[in-house]
Amino acid sequence: MEIIECEGLGVTYPGGVEALKNVDLTIEDGDFVIVVGLSGAGKSTLLRTINRLVEPTTGTIKVDGRVINNLDKKELKEYRSEVGMIFQNFNLVNRSSVLRNVLAGRLREVPTWRTLLGLFPEEDVEEALSCLERVGIKEKADSRADELSGGQQQRVGIARALAQEPKILLADEPVASLDPPTSHAVMQDLKRINEEDGITTLVNLHFIDLAQEYGEKIIGLREGELVYQGPASKVTEAKFEEIYGRSITADDQLTAGGEADV
Amino acid sequence: MSNSAAEEKPSRFMLVMGKIKGLLAIILVAIIYIWSARGVGFSLIEIIGELPSFFNLLWDMVPPNWAYSIRLINPLLETFQTAIAGTILGTLLAIPLILLCASNVNRNNPLYFASKGFMNLMRTIDPMLYAAILVAGVGLGAFAGMLALMFFSMAVNAKLTSESLEAIDDGPLEAIEACGGNKLEMIKYAVAPQILPTFASYTLYVFEINIRASTVLGLVGAGGIGVNLDTSLNLFRYPNAAMVILATFVVVVLIDHLSNVLREELV
Amino acid sequence: MKTSNTSLRDYEKKSMKWYVGYFVVLALFIWSMIGMNINLERISDGIPAMGRILALMVPPDTARLESSVIGMIETIQIAVIGTTIAAIFSIPVSFMAARNLGLPTAVSTAGKQILNAIRTFPSLVFGIFFVASYGPGPLAGVMALGINSIGMLGKLNSEIVEAIDPGPIEALEATGANYPEMFLYAVIPQVLPEFIGTTLYRFELNLRQASVLGLVGAGGIGVTLMQALQFRRWAIVGMTMLVIIVVVTILDYSSAFIRKKII
Ligand SMILES: Nc1ncnc2c1ncn2[C@@H]1O[C@H](COP(=O)(O)OP(=O)(O)O)[C@@H](O)[C@H]1O
Ligand SMILES: [Mg+2]
Predict the structure, then answer these.
(1) Pairwise CB contact (< 8 Å): A121 & C3
(2) Coil/strand/helix, residue A62
(3) Do C208 and C147 belong to one domain?
(4) Are residues C9 and C73 both part of a single domain?
(5) Predicted local distance difference test score (pLDDT) of residue C1
(6) ipTM, 2 decimals?
(7) For chain A, which residues make up each domain, given as ranges?
């Protein structure tokens, strides 16, 4: 069953940049999809459009059979709470505790008067703690976010997204700020969650070795156009060169070395 | 290409133009000075000629009337109360204004510009002026002074804090938006944690300004120790005036010190 | 099923210090409000009274436009000359108060203390004393701002001097330059733009101060304002305030613009 269907999706930014051009895309429920492409190819735009942080200019996006282009304010918040987002720069509040950051994922579940008073129901706090447990950093719950290492901070980001109990996880270059061993550890976390919970997951990456190692399916973007969509196993080096529009260099590979900073 | 070459090696023309610009600026400044000096009747002869009478005045002030200090305790407490109440109320009023004056929180353009305009307008008026008008409305006394400080500190705090707020990391704001959180939740979980230390530090700074201002509010009848300064001088009781100045000095220095200690705790 | 409540605080370490802080602020606030002698009557009479006053201010008395503008011009002039006097005096003082120019620490410490002492008082206090000795008029205002501003300008400028790059000084020293040469070619060029910046900033503050110095007789638009206030001529008060707001805003923006260009 398809969970995400894009038809003729186009995004033009106010400055006139056409970041996505006529993209037709289907993603099956439970897929683990890697989106590859050069910097500026439109990867972030694609994910952000799926979460409606960016407005589509043309075309439609259907999620779970429902068109999400014209949701009203309330529906949009409800929809966003079903889609978890993980960011390259983690987007944590540095000065707040880890728990407080993760509880942000429960905001939609809890009435606003409670969240504003900081009175989360016990169940929601337990839920947040169990999300932290799943990414292996439960004991850090009351540390300040900026006391954690980069890998741990990204796990807080993942826990926050999990706390939303999402149908879809969108991860925008989740490992681009991390060293190679930590990158692998975080990718393994994402993959494991996808397998255990069956949450459809889209991950933007620009390292082709990571894409091949973890992706089941790969989507290739080039200058805003969809140039490949299919199983990862069929993507050859030649195919990557086509997506990137140039020959593959060492910079496109993340070769592991050293100890994981977890 | 020709452009970058010109930047590396300015042409003769550019050099001459630069010199002319500099010269014009100097002439302009000179004109402003001459115009101002004549306007205020500036004369070194008068300044120096009157200096003895200034020092005579200072001389008449020593020794300060130490006994008068007891009568200053209540006015000093009132000065404190005015500054504290004015600062706290002004800070509370500043909170919505800060959020309205930050473009990353308030994305409604007309409302944003209206708020900034209001904030800047309120800031141009000196607290003494607010006090002089409020005294006519709510009567003589510290209440008018408190309201004056409240309006002024609201505007100053809103200006300083909203500018810092516009420079915070927008990532967490986006994360809350992506979770489906609403505006209030965004403010509580992404904006407040980032801006609170800065806000607290600016509030202390505004408090320091208010303590200084509250010592002279009495000159327009808005309460505090300024009333004693006014009457001492009007009755030519210079040793009393000296005592007021001394007491003010000690208190302001102490408050500044306390405020600095608190600020270091916060950061 | 969501039954029991949990406060986030139960899960986070929050030190006692904060609760003490909240309590102290709350107690101070209550104590202060008690001292304000606020009662219902004052509020119920005060709000309509303020409303009447504001209503009387508009429309402003346009017949007084000219005299207000003349008063404001004097205010600008007081601020210009006052700021300049302070700027000139603050230069030697700020070098004395700076700790990195090899002067004895006793000198810089004493310098800093004097600057702090001057900064303690609002310019209106200086205004009163200069009016008492120089007589009412703009010159008293000039002296008040001139002396008062040395405190802040000296402090800011000495911090600028303390932040200079010692490289150029050493470079000149290595060529065998003497102290005045080092000063002229390595120190002055580094600090001058920022000195001008702080002076302009102080000018912006002084302009506001100069607009109220007239309340104690030290010249400028405040004199007109005080007379209008004494006789409750609210339309004139409205006119003078309008002129103050417009002129202060324009000069604020111009000064801030020049500051950005220079630094
Ligand atoms: N907010 C924006 N406003 C204008 N142009 C943008 C914005 N965000 C991205 N772009 C442009 O859109 C194109 C695609 O960007 P992006 O989706 O970030 O690519 P990627 O994530 O693959 O690097 C780029 O040319 C980029 O400059
Ligand atoms: Mg990107």
Answers:
(1) yes
(2) strand
(3) yes
(4) no
(5) 42
(6) 0.86
(7) 90-165
Which of A9, A12, A13, A221 for mutating ligand 1's site (highest number of atoms within 8 Å of CB)? A13
Instruction: Categorize the per-residue pLDDT at C2 as very low, low, confident or very high, splitting at 50, 70 and 90.
Output: very low
Give the structural domain span for B139: 65-266
Alpha carbon of B79: minimum distance to chain C alpha carbons (Å): 9
> How confident is the model over B98-115, as a mean pLDDT?
95
Higher pLDDT pick, A67 / C5: A67
In chain A, the residue whose alpha carbon lies closest to the alpha carbon of C5 is A121
Mean pLDDT of B106-116: 94
Q: Mean of the per-residue pLDDT values for chain A?
A: 90
Tokens 């990353």 -> residue: B104
Judge if the upstream peptide bond of residue B63 is cis by omega within 30 degrees of 0.
yes
Contact A121/C at CB under 8 A: yes
Q: How near does any CA of chain B get to the CA of A118, in Å?
A: 9
> Does the pLDDT at position B88 exceed 60?
yes
A192, two tokens? 């494991």
Distances in Å between the alpha carbon of A114 and those of A39, B184, C7, C14? 41, 12, 9, 20
Give the integer Cα–Cα distance in Å for C54 and C234: 8
Residue C27: give the domain boundaries.
2-54
Q: A with C: how many residue pairs have Cβ under 8 Å apart?
A: 37
pTM here is: 0.86
Query: Rounded distance, CA A23 to CA A11, Å?
Result: 10
| Number of separate domains in chain C | 2
Question: What pLDDT sits at residue A259?
Answer: 43
Phi, psi of A221, deg, nearest 5: -115, 140
Whether B138 has its CB under 8 Å from any CB of chain C: the answer is yes
Residue B151 belongs to a domain with what CATH number?
A: 1.10.3720.10
CA distance C201 to C192: 14
What is the token pair recorded at A254?
Answer: 């993340």
Is A43 touching ligand 1 by the criterion CB < 6 Å?
yes
Q: Is A39 exposed, middle or buried (0-12, 13-18, 19+ CB in 10 A)?
A: exposed
Instruction: Indicate if the pLDDT at residue A235 is higher than 90.
Output: no
Is B88 in the same domain as B125? yes
Q: Are C14 and C100 part of one and the same domain?
A: no
Q: What is the number of structural domains in chain B?
A: 2
CATH number at residue C246: 1.10.3720.10
The pLDDT value recorded for residue C185 is 84
Regarding whether C142 and C42 lie in a shared domain, the answer is no
**Same structural domain for residues B177 and B157?**
yes
Nearest CA to ligand 1 atom 5: A13
Nearest CA to ligand 1 atom 12: A19
B174 CA distance to ligand 1 middle (Å): 16
- Residues C33 and C158 both lie in one domain: no
- As given in the structure block, the two tokens for residue B80 are 């404190």
